[in-house]
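Hi team, as promised in this morning's meeting, here are the two structures we talked about. I've kept the exact order from the run log so nobody has to guess. The first one is mostly here for context; it's the second one we should focus on when we meet again. Sequence first, then the predicted structure tokens.
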Amino acid sequence: DTVVDATMGNGNDTLLLARLAGENGKVYSFDIQEAALINTEKKLREAGVSNIVELICDGHQNIKKYVPQGIRAVMFNLGYLPKGDHSIGTKADTTIEALKRSMELLMDGGIIMMVVYYGGDSSFEEKEAVLEYVKTIDCRNYSVLVCDFANQINCPPIAVCIEKVRK
């Protein structure tokens, strides 16, 4: 499979996707911070899967510059790089643009999995904008599931899953 980690961070999801994609698969992984690429490259090399991963130092909104049509899955973790600079994080406008472009690239039955982290140093504005945007996605072409914790405090993460309808 061809898959995308739209928010590389420290490479945990990139590594998982590389293992799931298989030796003939391809993973594209995006981050705007050089530290994320360095951390991820080391992790992938140690795991022996760096050969199927392309690390891209660019914003996820530019996904169509790098990734071909027909991807199986895209993962997003919104917020900032864990243990990184909290002033650098995902933003509503670029995240929504990345979602739109990712949906265009999905194969039928492909999915986008997004975890929305917010509160504290992360953006309430991004959370609100993303949750409003997904409500507007055409249900004839995509199914959207939003899942949050009903009994947790301190801004628990919200999961969003978008599946492209099989034609």
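And here is the second protein, the one for discussion:
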Amino acid sequence: MLKALKREEVPVYHLPGRDWFLCIGPENTDAKNATLGVAVFPEGSAPPGHVHPAEEELIYIVAGHGQLVTPEGTGGLSPGTSVYVPMGLHHATVSEGPGPLELVSVFSPPVVPGSYEAKAQPPKGAP
């Protein structure tokens, strides 16, 4: 079934150094093979990073500037940049400003939001 959701309608997860909006996934649609989200890192944010042990991540930078840091190297992030993060690769995002770094991310298979974060908080309105 087709379902269109606006950002203000979706759950917001307050993860270390960013807010992550769960735009589309099994939690709020009939999606079975992917999760789509938007992350907003405030200027100067540099959380320690994490690993997705079972999910590939595709990233597209919408706004802002920063770096994606991995054991393999560092890549610059700016609007229009696309990034592939294979499962199991430790990665950390640095928001350099000016302004927030905003990115769209797709996970396959679907990710459990915040499951890879030590200090994840449930979305607003969750029990």
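Starting points for discussion:
DSSP finds no helices and nine strands in the chain.
Strands lie at 12-15, 18-24, 35-41, 56-63, 66-70, 73-77, 82-85, 92-95, 101-108.
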